[in-house]
Amino acid sequence: RPAVELVDVCKVFDTSATPPAYAVDHLSLKIASGEFFTFLGPSGCGKTTTLRMIAGFESPTAGKILLEGHDVSGLPAHMRNTNTVFQSYALFPHLSVEDNVAFGLAVKRVPRSERGDRVAAALDLVRMRHAAGRKPSELSGGQQQRIALARALVNEPSVLLLDEPFGALDLKLRREMQIEVKEMQRRLGITFIFVTHDQEEALTMSDRIAVMSTGVVRQIDDPVGIYERPTDRFTAGFIGDMNMLSATVLERQDGVVEVLAADTRLKLKTNAELPAGKDCTIAMRPEALTFMRDSADDAAFAGKVESAVYVGTDRLYNIRLQTGEAMTVRVRNSRADSVLRIGEKVSLFCPSSAIHL
Ligand code: ADP
Ligand code: MG
C-alpha cells in the first residue's frame, strides 16, 4: 500500500478563467512507504500547491488523494497523519525551544506525562537537546530549522512534508543539512516528501524525483535515471548543464537511428518511435564531450573556441559550431592538453552512449 497516492489530481485557483489555468494538471503518482520523494521544478510549477493538497491545507479541484490507501478528501490537515516543515520556520518567538516542540503534542492532545520524553527524543534527533531552554532568537538559522524539524517529527507523522526547508540557509549550511536530514530519514524510515527548485539538492537527497513544469510531472525516476536518462527536453535542460541540438532522423533500422544534427551524422540506439524524416532533439552533457584539434571526422561537430572559463578542477569552453549552434565542453585540468586558445578550431566528439535522444 503506497504511503501517498495521487489520482488525476488537479488544482485550478481561478475557475472563472477560460481556458482554466491549472496550477496542478492531472497529477497521478504513488509514493512508497519509507521513500524520500522529491518534487523538483522551477518557481511557479505547482510544487507547493501539490504539497498543500497532500497536507490538507488546500483541496483539489478534481481527482483524489489517498494516504495509506484511504481517500482523505474532506479530511482536515490536523486529522491527517502528515506534518509539514516550511521554509519559514514559524517558531513561536516567546516560547522556549522545548515549548515550541511540545506545542504540537498539546494540539494533538498527547497526555502531559508523555510530552517531556517525546520532546527530548525529538530534540535528540536533530541534535539540539542542549538548546532546550533557549529562545528561537538565540539560535542560528540552521538551528532554528532543526527545531522546526523536531517540532514536526515529535508527532511521529507517517509522512513528513518539507517545502524548500533549507531555502533561507547559506550554501555551506544547506549542504550539511541535506546530508543530515537524509541520514535522519533513512534512520527513522518515515516517508519524506520534499519540495525544492534546486536540482543538486534533489539529486543529493532523493530516492526518487518527480520533475515538474507548469503543473505537469515530466519525468519520475531515481537521481541517476533523471540525470543520465532524461526522457524529455524540459528535464534534460533543467537538470545540470546540457547541450541540445535539433536533429532530423535520416534512417531507422533495427533499433538504430541515423540522425543529422549540426551537419553531423550520428548513429544512435533507441526504442523510441522515430521514423525517417522526424524531428527530434539530441542532448549531451558538457563533460561527455571531448575535443580534438585536427580532425576531419564526419562523426564530429566542427567549430571554433569562442570563450573559456576556468572553474578550478575543470575548464569550460564555449564552442561555436560552423552551423551556428553554441556548445559547452567541460575539460579536466589534469588533461595535459586542456588549454585551448580563443579562436582555435576544434572537433567535438560524444560517445553515442552519452547522447540522449
Ligand atoms: P511552486 O511552489 O512550484 O513555486 P506554486 O504551487 O506556489 O508553485 O504555484 C503554482 C501556480 O499556482 C502559480 O502560477 C501560482 O501563481 C498559482 N497559485 C498558487 N497559490 C495560489 C493562490 N492561493 N491563489 C491563486 N493562485 C495561486
Ligand atoms: Mg513553492
UniProtKB/TrEMBL annotation:
E.C. designation(s): 7.6.2.11
UniProt-listed GO biological process terms: putrescine transport
Any single GO CC term annotated in Swiss-Prot or TrEMBL for this entry: ATP-binding cassette (ABC) transporter complex
Molecular function via GO: ABC-type polyamine transporter activity; ATP binding; ATP hydrolysis activity
Pfam family, one: ABC_tran
Stated family: Belongs to the ABC transporter superfamily. Spermidine/putrescine importer (TC 3.A.1.11.1) family.
Assembly and oligomerization: The complex is composed of two ATP-binding proteins (PotA), two transmembrane proteins (PotB and PotC) and a solute-binding protein (PotD).
Protein task: Part of the ABC transporter complex PotABCD involved in spermidine/putrescine import. Responsible for energy coupling to the transport system.
UniProt name for this protein: Spermidine/putrescine import ATP-binding protein PotA
Species: Mesorhizobium zhangyense
Organism ancestry: Bacteria, Pseudomonadati, Pseudomonadota, Alphaproteobacteria, Hyphomicrobiales
